[in-house]
Design a protein that fits this description.
The protein has no helices and nine strands. Strand 5 and strand 6 form a beta hairpin.
Length: 122
């Protein structure tokens, strides 16, 4: 699903979204989370790994996903790579203190690009 972002230019990385430019159009990749019920939790952080420049922001050449799961949580790291280095990351985590699943999740969505990806769920 992330292959749709290859060739896109990162315009902005915010607390709840990443904006990318494809051609002349800007798309917003929205990151949402829900703690679910009881003692569930879900959180995420976004990081921009380069100094932005409005005219010459780097282009995404690859996107990787690393998943990790333990007895009480699920997590992932999405890394957007440029030609020679990482450009941005989304680190996601969902779980519960008890280990039981309560419906907690973190997702990445962009309806215009048909992206609907669960990054972590428990």
């Amino acid at each position: 699903m992330f292959e749709k972002l290859i060739g896109a230019q990162i315009v902005n990385v915010g607390d709840e979204c990443i904006e990318v430019k494809i051609g002349a159009e800007v798309f917003k990749l929205e990151i949402t989370s829900d703690d679910g019920d009881c003692c569930g939790f879900a959180d995420f952080t976004t990081k921009l790994l380069y100094l932005p420049n409005d005219l010459r922001n780097p282009v995404i050449t690859n996107v990787t996903r690393e998943d990790s799961e333990s007895y009480d949580d699920d997590s992932s790291v999405i890394t957007f790579f440029g030609e020679s280095k990482p450009l941005a990351t989304i680190e996601s985590n969902a779980g519960s203190g008890s280990g039981w699943g309560y419906g907690a999740f973190v997702s990445l969505r962009c309806n215009a690009l048909d992206i609907d990806e669960t990054l972590a769920s428990w």
